[in-house]
Amino acid sequence: MIIQEQEAIDKAVEAITGDMGALWITLAAILVFFMQAGFTLLEIGFTRSKNTGNIIMKNVMDLAVGSVMFWAVGYAIMYGSDLVGGGFFRSSPSDQGYFFFSADDWYNLFFQTVFCATAATIVSGAIAGRTKFSTYLIFSAILTTLIYPISGSWYWPFDDDAWLNTAGFVDFAGSSVVHAVGGAAALVAAILVGPRIGKYVDGKAQAIPGHNMAFGALGVFILWLGWFGFNGGSQLAWGGDDTIGATSVIINTNLAAAIGAIGALFFTWARYGKADISMTLNGALAGLVGITAGCGSVNAWGALAIGLLCGIVVVVSIEFIDKKLKIDDPVGAISVHGVCGFLGTVLIGLFALDGGLFYGGSGKLLWVQTYGSLAYIVWAAVASFIVLFILKKTIGLRVSEKEEVEGLDMHEHGVEAYPEHISQDK
């Protein structure tokens, strides 16, 4: 009798714990959903007012198209039970609940959907102000349907069939799986689309200031908030040790963002003689991206080290890409997400409490982290190049010179986001 009662209690506790975990994942997904507003405001603030409506439309459609395509196909490719192409991606028949999703773990679908939309949105800012809206929609659909889900299947199912998981690769919430993939796609897109008119004169980079730093700052604050769901929700459970794990992840996330902003602030202050606002904001985002992979594997000191390094590196990277490589990225997305996504993933090999080189590791983890992150970058770059090159040769990537000069809002959408008397771009 006592044994039966204990079994009943254990089952009840297990059910409650499962429900709490599902609730936590759902709430975290809502926070990540809200990050789309942060990306929108950040991109609007860091670019010209005449393209505000276009940026709004791109971010809305990233979420809308991504939600439908990931539900219909992407989730099956990423989490299906059947391996295809020797484990290159996955699939499952519809009667198992994958294609045109019909299983019952809806909270996992929602959580993974908003992650997928985030990967697509990274590209938007890097090619702002000169890209055809129709072309962007097609690329966003392909990224959320195929490019992101295929590479995501290499690790996040957390089973023996995921080759990077088997190799011992660590990416807790997606510095490489999400951010480096989006950053690599953004790099290729920015190169193929080309710089904005007036960005480079006689081979020298010209500053094209954003029109509303307040929007940019608000966007960063929203992203910072949403990142607690992005990283904390990736614990994928709540209760007991999982509660401790999720909350420690949140603290590591906050510390990395804070020191990233501080690092960028003082580095630019020393370098330019001024406390640079946009670089400080990007420093916070760089810290967030950098710690995303290792937030569950490092202690607070490790989080501070990763955040500080990313906050400084992002400044150097933005300058190098802009002035030396002459690749026009209005919001610094390539550096924040691509460079710092790679750096944060690799730094786990140094700072991880289990296997990190600074904690008695042999260096194996550092090697796995390096080639694992590079695999994501190479895949996203090659796949994006193929898609975008085809689009460039068929329907085109770029708007006309007249459309770019006059603004995408009027030419692509037939409306101005601001009344003419407050626009600064006329």
Automatic annotation (TrEMBL):
Stretches that traverse the bilayer:
21-42, 63-89, 109-129, 136-156, 176-193, 213-230, 250-270, 277-294, 300-321, 333-353, 373-391
Protein family membership = Belongs to the ammonia transporter channel (TC 1.A.11.2) family.
Which compartments does it reside in? Cell membrane; Membrane
Q: Tell me the NCBIfam families matching this sequence.
A: amt (TIGR00836)
Q: Which UniProt keywords apply?
A: Ammonia transport, Membrane, Transmembrane, Transmembrane helix, Transport
Please give the name of this protein: Ammonium transporter
Cite a single GO MF annotation: ammonium channel activity
Q: Does the keyword Iron-sulfur apply?
A: no
Write one Pfam family the protein is assigned to: Ammonium_transp
Extract one GO BP annotation from the record. Answer: ammonium homeostasis
Q: Does the keyword Membrane apply?
A: yes
- GO annotations of cellular component type: plasma membrane
Instruction: Check the UniProt entry and state the signal peptide residues, or none.
Output: none
What organism is listed for this UniProt entry?
Flagellimonas lutimaris
